[in-house]
Design goal:
The complex is a heterodimer of chains A (about 230) and B (about 425). Helix content of chain A is about 40%, strand content about 10%. Chain A has about 230 residues and is α+β, with helices and mostly antiparallel strands. Chain A has two domains: about 5-70, Arc Repressor Mutant, subunit A, CATH 1.10.10; about 80-175, 3-Layer(aba) Sandwich (Glutaredoxin), CATH 3.40.30. Chain B has helices at about 20-25, 30-35, 40-50, 65-70, 95-100, 100-115, 130-145, 175-185, 195-200, 210-225, 225-230, 265-270, 305-310, 325-340, 345-365, 370-385, 390-415; strands at about 80-85, 120-125, 160-165, 205-210, 240-245, 255-260, 280-285, 315-320. Classes of the chains: A alpha+beta (about 230), B alpha/beta (about 425). Chains A and B meet through α2, α5, α7 and α8 of A and α5, α7, β3, α11 and β5 of B.
């Protein structure tokens, strides 16, 4: 469905703001694609055409970029996109079992969406939270230290509309489209929500505090520090 | 135990507001910038060289030397680009750093940009970490509000714009030239080097690309001195860094320590391998670094010692696997990852990983032959050194090292006609049960 005039006018304001962040306009393509994904839930032909118009490049050039990056969806994603890490570390720690049970529980496979459009699932690669394995992402928020049971409960909550709270993230998980808009560079005012750090992130610091270990003080030279 | 932890970047992560500029300044934040702005840019470059800081993104190239490669006196603008595309399997240090203390990165960016005479800097952060993106957006806004970014920073006459750029899911964009192509709005594929980014980087202008942890370490060097930094670590691997323990370990997490600490020391601190099990294999620095075994527990984790022992320090991503883990399953999954993430630009990586994944799948399910081990090594030989970038080279690491240390386990798979391991026994919920 093509953008209405109102929608297009609104998107053009956002697009110009994005383009202005860069010395060269073409650099704005990735955030522009996050922007059109925020509007429609996935990257449509209309979204591609809009980006091409904004940057004075062809739809083919935009499409080449869309198909390269896994975060751009070419089919509608669920309102809540659930990524289960099945790279080696998480897979071994239980990610494989989580994905298998989740897939069976929802009756959908990798890259598929439930009939109600609420939840889609994907096997994702390492999301840089290995010390919290097994890790699951919902709309790119961290759900750490998961199990098959916690993830099945999580998607049940998402499907009936209960609020769901990431372990390290905002107080409530936002929708896929809201998340995409933040990634386009439009803050949602929720940076102050959630913890600064948790669990494993603090393991080393806590141990250092308990044992009185610190980095050398400033001015301590090589020799002085030679204990 | 001879080595102790040295929390610097993580020193205040246990305070609830640690990610705010208020907390950062309360603990001496932006002192380094105030000092830097009184110095000549060349002297800052020299100071970072003297500190011995080496890139924390895996390759370990001396940071100050990288800065020194920028040609001076030309008419093209200079750029600083921070690589925050943390995606190497096992690597999980920059993300918690940016979540808990983004201001250390912002201060490092301003100092580093001033040193290399850049007036526009970029943070290229992977898109799959929404709350980190929020924290960075807020941190940048706070720094602008306080006059640490923008025009005439702290009355110095120095101007710097900082743009946050979110990636869209591609491991290859952690490779610095692919990252630049991506930042320019293209498919993220690596560029032929030379020219190196220092000469022709972003928009073909002189560009420095540095890892998050490298840049975040710079303010502490300015504040405490090059000698303070080089007083930690080993002779050629100076300073401190995050050691990220994950997997079958009692207390996984971030341990900030001098380079040269050993896995034995770190495991002691982390409560050891999970109860009832033995260490089987581990990565010193992510999936692209050849695996180690229990015989490497006392290798000092610095660039030289890990290299001499046959692997690479990489990103200090210490993924620990115990005796319940099938090494072939682990390697297969890593190769499926490289197959999935290969950008397709060069044949050795695109085709080699595709074929290796098929062979490894056969081997894991007990359908292989011993000749296929030689086939794997042959393919590795055709990838390593013949790929366009380090992603392809890195893919061979788990294959060759696992065959080196666990050839018998591969053979056991096709002797039995299947995998002798139960995946359920490796899971977290299997606990310490033997």
């Amino acid at each position: 469905m093509a953008f209405t005039e109102d929608v297009r006018a609104r998107l053009e304001v956002d697009a110009k703001e994005i383009i202005a962040r860069y010395p060269k306009a073409r650099s704005a393509l990735l955030p522009l694609l996050h922007l059109v994904q925020a509007e429609q839930g996935y990257v449509t032909q209309d979204g591609i055409g809009f980006c091409a118009d904004m940057l004075n490049i062809t739809a083919a050039e935009v499409t080449a970029v869309v198909t390269f990056y896994t975060m751009y969806k070419q089919e509608p994603a669920g309102e809540y996109h659930v990524g289960v890490c099945t790279n080696t570390l998480c897979a071994v720690m239980g990610g494989d079992q989580i994905f298998a049970e989740l897939s069976e529980h929802l009756g959908i496979g990798n890259h598929e969406t439930t009939e109600d459009g609420r939840v889609s699932i994907e096997r994702v690669e390492c999301n840089a939270a290995c010390d919290f394995a097994p890790v699951v992402m919902v709309n790119w928020e961290f759900f750490d230290n998961q199990s098959p049971e916690t993830v099945k409960r999580l998607v049940d909550d998402l499907r009936v509309g209960n609020d769901v709270k990431p372990t390290r993230g905002a107080d409530r998980v936002c929708t896929w489209r809201e998340a995409s808009r933040v990634l386009a560079g439009f803050p949602d005012g929720r940076a102050g929500e959630g913890v600064q750090a948790a669990g494993p992130t603090l393991e080393g610091l806590n141990l250092a505090r308990a044992r009185g270990w610190t980095a050398p003080a400033a001015g301590e030279s090589n020799e002085e520090n030679d204990q | 135990m001879t080595t102790t932890l040295t929390p610097v970047l993580s020193a205040h992560w246990d305070e609830a507001d640690s990610y705010t500029i208020g907390a950062y300044e309360r603990h001496g934040g932006y002192k380094g910038l105030r000092k830097a702005l009184t110095m000549a840019p060349e002297d800052i470059v020299a100071m970072v060289k003297d500190s011995g800081l080496r890139g924390r993104g895996g390759a370990g190239f001396p940071t100050g030397m990288k800065w020194g490669f920028l040609p001076q006196g030309g008419d093209k603008p200079h750029y600083l680009v921070v690589n925050a595309d943390e995606s190497e399997p096992g690597t999980c240090k920059d993300i918690p750093l940016m979540l808990a203390n983004p201001q250390s990165l912002i201060e490092g960016i301003v100092i580093s940009s001033f040193a290399i005479k850049a007036n526009h800097a970029f943070i290229y952060v992977r898109g799959e970490v929404l709350h980190v993106v929020r924290r960075l957006q807020q941190a940048i806004g706070e720094a602008y509000d306080k006059g640490f970014l923008g025009a005439d920073i702290l009355g110095s006459g120095y101007n710097l714009e900082l743009t946050l750029h979110c990636g869209a899911g591609a491991y290859i964009c952690g490779e610095e030239t692919a990252l630049l192509d991506s930042l320019e709005g293209y498919r993220g594929q690596p560029r032929l080097k030379p020219p190196f980014p220092a000469v022709a980087g972003l928009y073909a202008c002189p560009t420095v690309v540095n890892n998050v942890e490298s840049i975040a370490s710079v303010p502490s060097i300015l504040t405490n001195g090059a000698g303070w930094f080089s007083g930690m670590g080993t002779e050629k691997s100076k300073g401190f860094g995050f050691f990220s323990l994950s997997g079958h370990v009692t207390k996984p997490g971030q341990y900030e320590a001098p380079l040269g600490i050993t896995l034995r020391e770190l495991l002691d601190m982390a409560g050891g391998v999970r109860a009832g099990h033995e260490l089987k294999f581990w990565t010193p620095g992510g999936s692209s670094t050849p695996i180690f075994t229990a015989e490497h527990l006392d290798v000092p984790l610095d660039f030289e010692s890990v290299g001499a022992a046959g692997s690479m320090l990489g990103t200090r991503a210490l993924q620990i696997f115990d005796d319940t883990t099938c090494v072939i399953r682990a390697v297969l999954r890593w190769i499926e990852f490289y197959e999935h993430e290969s950008c397709g630009k060069c044949t050795p990586c695109r085709e080699g990983n595709f074929w290796m994944a098929q062979i490894l799948e056969r081997l894991e399910h007990g359908n292989g032959t011993e000749a296929e081990l030689d086939k794997l090594l042959d393919i590795c030989d055709n990838i390593l050194g013949r790929s366009f970038c380090a992603l392809g080279d890195g893919a061979t690491s788990p294959v060759t090292s696992s065959i080196q240390y666990f050839r018998d386990e591969y053979i056991e798979h096709f002797r039995r006609g299947g995998c002798p391991f139960d995946p359920a026994a490796s899971t977290v919920w299997a606990g310490g049960k033997a």
